[in-house]
Amino acid sequence: MLKRTLYISNPYHLSIKNKQLVVSEKNGMPLKTAPVEDLGFIVLDHPQISFTMKLVEELNEVNVATVFCDSKHLPSSMLLPLDANHIQNEIFRAQISATEPLKKNLWKQTIEAKIKNQARLLSKLGKNSIPLKAVGRTVKSGDSDNREGFAARLYWMELLGRNFIRDRYGDPPNPFLNYGYILLRSAVARALAGSGLLATLGIHHRNRYNAFCLADDVMEPYRPYVDEIVFEMKKSWPDVFMLGKEHKAELLQLMTADVKIGETKRPLMIALSQTTASLAKCFNGEQRKIVYPEFD
């Protein structure tokens, strides 16, 4: 079932009644309701939003990714359940005991899928994807010679021009890409929790200060879905330098973007669950290949 995404940027009070999320004015007047089981992703972007602990309990129960924004209106933290899968202990053990050759093979698959999807996006936009496709065919186990980095240079130069520098603190559209990637990361973390995986324990990323290393791994082939949204937005506002509410709302469409896996198209949030479930099976030895999307 397609899960709904909510973006709340006013000082509302959030509560629960009869399994329904109730959005109310501070004076208690209800404005809107939504079944909790229909929700997949909520972004709270106002310092005066309040909510009940019962609502938090219900959101956790159905594995809703609840994202909190900071004073700069950027996603800064997230609410996730600690027990979202009935065989979580078994999956944790398999993930922790994964061999280095297995992790290197999984990372090779991930980078191949990422570069292929970057090339597909360039082709879709009528840009030259031939050099990128060639790089994608040379990825080694563990991406030992960093084909990912080389492909990124080719990709950004072709997608946004020779003068564009992809940098976290760089000029627009970098802030728009950052926001989209944070949303994507949150959605991946939600899917990992639902599949019983430890988001902290990555197959490649190992930063000791990063609590979402596995999310950073798995999101790589999905990044072009963010890139496409930002590219299309940029065409309609070439002189915009501030990330506004309307842009954030548009980036939230990422969660319902059509994603092709095999011969089937499904919303991105559902596709992520299929990807993370396949990764859990790889750790358990049930299969050898992660199910990643093919950018269409």
Automatic annotation (TrEMBL):
Any one Pfam family match given in the protein's UniProt record, by short name: Cas_Cas1
Domain of life: Bacteria
GO aspect biological process, one term: maintenance of CRISPR repeat elements
Signal sequence segment: none
GO molecular function annotations of the record: DNA binding; DNA endonuclease activity; hydrolase activity; metal ion binding
EC number: 3.1.-.-
EC category: hydrolase
Cofactor: Mg(2+); Mn(2+)
Keywords for the protein's UniProt record, in alphabetical order: Antiviral defense, DNA-binding, Endonuclease, Hydrolase, Magnesium, Manganese, Metal-binding, Nuclease
Chain sites annotated for binding Mn(2+): 148, 205, 220
NCBIfam families in the cross-refs: cas1, cas1_NMENI
Record note on quaternary structure: Homodimer, forms a heterotetramer with a Cas2 homodimer.
Role summary: CRISPR (clustered regularly interspaced short palindromic repeat), is an adaptive immune system that provides protection against mobile genetic elements (viruses, transposable elements and conjugative plasmids). CRISPR clusters contain spacers, sequences complementary to antecedent mobile elements, and target invading nucleic acids. CRISPR clusters are transcribed and processed into CRISPR RNA (crRNA). Acts as a dsDNA endonuclease. Involved in the integration of spacer DNA into the CRISPR cassette.
PANTHER family: CRISPR-ASSOCIATED ENDONUCLEASE CAS1 1
Family statement: Belongs to the CRISPR-associated endonuclease Cas1 family.
Record's protein name: CRISPR-associated endonuclease Cas1
